[in-house]
Amino acid sequence: MWRCRPNWTACTTRSPVRITRVLAQRALDLDGDARYERLAGISVSHLYNLRASGPYRKQRRVWQKTRPSPVAIGVRKAPAPQGLPGYIRIDTVHQGDQDGRKGVYHINAVDIVTQWELIACVERISEAYLLPVIALLLEGFPLPCADFIPTPAPSTSTTTRPSF
Question: Helices 44-52 and 16-31: crossing angle, nearest 10°?
Answer without folding.
Answer: 120
